[in-house]
Amino acid sequence: MRVIRVGTRKSQLARIQTDSVVATLKASYPGLQFEIIAMSTTGDKILDTALSKIGEKSLFTKELEHALEKNEVDLVVHSLKDLPTVLPPGFTIGAICKRENPHDAVVFHPKFVGKTLETLPEKSVVGTSSLRRAAQLQRKFPHLEFRSIPWAWKSEPRTRTSWIWWVCCTIPRLCFAASLKGPS
């Protein structure tokens, strides 16, 4: 039986996404076997710096692209948001899966249950890894304080903030039980 080697990042969210893609492929191609090969990327190794301050492109794709070039994997699974605008020569996007919920969600610290963004106390600390999102929210909620959380995209919250802004599709994938409320 032919084995298809599927490259992915080692992060929990990347593995969940890859497992989903492989399950779909297995259902469509029952005569094939799939081996998942997980690897750390440059972006996975940088835990203490905001991505916007690094300036390098392909932080989450370079190592996987090299594995493809060296024939160590047959295909890779990426979040489309991680791909560079222009793909390297010889590379192509083979498929795009059905899009999950594209909305954002706010996850409050338990002591703020029942609050809204408008009613959070003055100078409440807000964590996000997105400069764009922080700028949009700062304009709408100037009473809040925004801090970059370089690891928020790694799905492993470990900070002291009043709340963290997540992309909705991340929450069920990571099995967070939370009451979701988008921006007002």
Helix-strand pattern: EHEHHHEEEHEEH
CATH class of the largest domain: Alpha Beta
Strand content: 15-25%
Low-confidence residue ranges: 151-163, 175-184
What name does CATH use for the topology of the largest domain? D-Maltodextrin-Binding Protein, domain 2
Task: State mean pLDDT (0 to 100 scale).
Answer: 76
Within CATH, the superfamily of the largest domain carries the name Periplasmic binding protein-like II
The end-to-end span amounts to 53 Å
Query: How many domain units?
Result: 2
Total helical segments: 6
Q: Which architecture name of the largest domain does CATH use?
A: 3-Layer(aba) Sandwich
Rough outline: elongated
**Strand line-up in the sheet with most strands:** 4-7-5-6
The biggest sheet amounts to: 4 strands, mixed
Radius of gyration: 19 Å
Characteristic key phrases:
184 residues; alpha/beta; D-Maltodextrin-Binding Protein, domain 2; four-stranded mixed β-sheet; disordered C terminus
What does this structure look like?
The strands form 2 sheets. Strands 4-7-5-6 form a 4-stranded mixed β-sheet, covered by helices on one side. The protein starts with a strand and ends in an 11-residue tail after the last helix. The protein is elongated and about 60 Å long. Residues 151-163 and 175-184 have low confidence and may be disordered. The protein has 2 domains: 3-100 and 173-181, D-Maltodextrin-Binding Protein, domain 2 (3-Layer(aba) Sandwich), CATH 3.40.190; 106-168, no CATH class. Helix 1 (12-28) links the parallel strand 1 (3-9) and strand 2. The chain contains 6 helices and 7 strands, in the order βαβαααβββαββα. It has 184 residues and is α/β, with parallel strands linked by helices.
